[in-house]
């Protein structure tokens, strides 16, 4: 049974689509947006798309069959990267007059440029992590465009709150991490800020769709649909492909989900389950970190839309309205150069020397997590407590350093978790602490990259006990820091052969890629405790062998490899896509209707960049 592409989603979006142009074709670019000339797109490189190495969840995550040194044929085109937030840090100047901007070097979106050909222009579309008054938005937009090739999206405060905290963080984020609503009361859904504590909130969903339309309108301002690629990122913008496909029928659209995708038994509880699936199927290529996430998505398409996937020469595709939607399985990597540069900084060497003195004679286990209900920080503390109790040889010797990055969300569940963590730290230090020895060092503040690198360097083992996590790059960062920077001969470097140990939850995306890690079920406190003990008690030679294996994988599958592979597959997915048949195109266009849900938009959002 074939389902309609846009039904029920664009119904929610207020706006006159007729004014934007007809449903089919590429559409015309707005005059005065950029005025940049574009070369025609030329396809030159044949090839196959990424392969699936396994057919069950016990097998490792599949990686791309496209080698990282294969030249891309997209060099004459432009990539528009769309995400909820721009990879830019905005600060109000000390005198209060104007803004200063800088790149966010830790942003994955910025780092993915390394996998894009130098000749290919990259333009970012997203929101700023700063409140910019309406009167200043045009000037800020022009400054970001001129200096950073960024086009900011400004959402009204009330819309952003309903979109981000209301739907993204209280509906999608918990559901995608396997957390179902606890209450069926409407009041719980509308007055509480805790995720998963109330029933589906229709107004929050409408805000989500409307916010996605804001992002769509910004893309329309800057796009050249005949030459540009659009790469949409993460669960915040899953409705965006519908708007893009409706406006530009032949546009090349890719989407990558950075969170888990839940099993069909979980996902089917979402009242707008079909709308989101249909929206994603308006892409040419959909990417996931692991085979399990992709398998769950395919299962949902089969059970809820009646669409079955086909596999041909390692290529997984879904036939949807005369188009083949490709499925890409490729775990993201880290930016090797940035970490290695940090390893050479003088501040890192100074901080490393301090930490080596502070923890002299101690075995350091390290956790680096966001303060989040799904990160399993308290489970880690309970397991460490169990290890000290059942293996008393580590009392006075083993230290768990837990870095908790500031929370991104808010709510009662988070407050409860924070209280539990604080209580566990007090109890463990009270029961096992000695003069000059605290078994748990809890760091609840912003930690600079340099300081984090220093902690990675001294840690004998990194422990990740998240109960659900899309990818989690902490183990990758740790492995690179334990290896050290090439050619570095700092006197503060860890002496001897390179080694590292990992205890990782089986529920995180990076787990299948780390075959030498000790995998644990974080809910099993005793087994996790034994995993910690095994990791720090393992013979040195075995630690070295596991480290070498992990380092080879991490260094060969960095963020540039991931980005290049996705772009190549997006190009090939589009190249193999036939022209849409007339009947299919007519049916696709006819499936769209509109429903006015109110005028939430400020005038500034309708002005082209650089226009009046």
From TrEMBL:
- In its UniProt entry, the species of origin is given as Panicum miliaceum (Proso millet)
Which keywords has UniProt assigned to this entry? Glycosyltransferase, Transferase
Example of a GO MF term: trehalose-phosphatase activity
Q: Where is the composition biased (Low complexity)?
A: 60-69
A GO cellular-component term linked to this record: cytosol
A biological process term (GO) from this entry:
trehalose biosynthetic process
Q: Which CDD domains match?
A: GT20_TPS
Q: What is the name attached to this protein's record?
A: Uncharacterized protein
Q: Where is this region: Disordered?
A: 49-69, 577-612
Q: Which InterPro entries match?
A: Glyco_trans_20 (IPR001830)
